[in-house]
Amino acid sequence: MPSDAHFTPALFEFLAELGINNDREWFKASKSRYNADVRDPLLQFVADFGERLEQISPNYVADPRPVGGSMFRIHRDVRFSRDKSPYKTNAGAHFRHRVGREVHGPGYYLHLEPGNVFVGAGIWHPDTETLTNVRDAIVANPGKWQRIVEDEGFRAQYSLEGDSLQRGPKGYDPDHPLIEDIKRKDFVASATFTEDEACAPDFIDVFGDACRRVGPFAEFLTTAVGLPW
Questions:
Q1: Which of 65, 134, 149, 171 gets the highest tally of CB atoms within 10 A of its CB?
Q2: Residue 26 sits in which domain range?
Q3: In this predicted model, what pLDDT tens digit does every residue of 7-29 receive, in sequence order?
Q4: Domain count, the chain
């Protein structure tokens, strides 16, 4: 168990203040706080999680580079948004498949936001081909899918999230017993935590255990889209 926590309440305090002062002038004046309280701890978390992630799947990557790695940028893409606030008010890291930038592959996600801490795994807003591959895998392996999503340990910690079609997609039996899952447009499982849990010294182990518990779900999606687990 780690003796020191990766994250402290200062991370959430900074993000809360950023939500009130979401402008470039304030952020520039507070950049050293961002680096010390948010960026550097998250990069260290990513680096330290790499060995644990490899034990879950050697094909998923924890990349601690400050740019282009697992950590999401704090800057928002405002090009197509009515909200022109320049900064995100959350911090996060996405642990992608090693070819995840080339395909719509699954990933693990850590989200840190005041009052909203969660772990996610799966595929968010996949393209049509990827979505079809997952749906076909559910139809081809209904028993395996059910065992995964109905497992007591999985359901005790995780819930399935995302958008769904109102009607079954074309080409699939509308009376299929798993039609509600086939109708999904996102295949994401999430588990929530508190800020206190995120700031505990053992949170990296808690996060690792959560990733292992959702591993069968991630493995199903990974192989469904033709990637090695």
A1: 134
A2: 9-224
A3: 999 999 999 999 999 999 999 99
A4: 1
CATH number of the domain enclosing 165: 3.30.930.20
* Domain presence at residue 2: no
The structure tokens listed for 109 are 């996600």
4 within some domain? no
Domain for residue 1, yes or no?
Answer: no
Residue 62 in 3-state DSSP?
coil
Q: CA-CA distance, 165 to 177, in Å (whole number)?
A: 16
User: Is 76 exposed, middle or buried (CB count within 10 Å of its CB: 0-12, 13-18, 19+)?
Assistant: middle
Per DSSP, the three-state class of 99 is: coil
* Residue 2: pLDDT band with limits 50, 70, 90: low
| C-beta of residue 208 within 8 angstroms of C-beta of residue 49 | yes
Question: Order of strands across the sheet with 187-193?
Answer: 91-96, 107-113, 116-123, 187-193, 159-161
Q: Is residue 212 a part of any domain in this protein?
A: yes
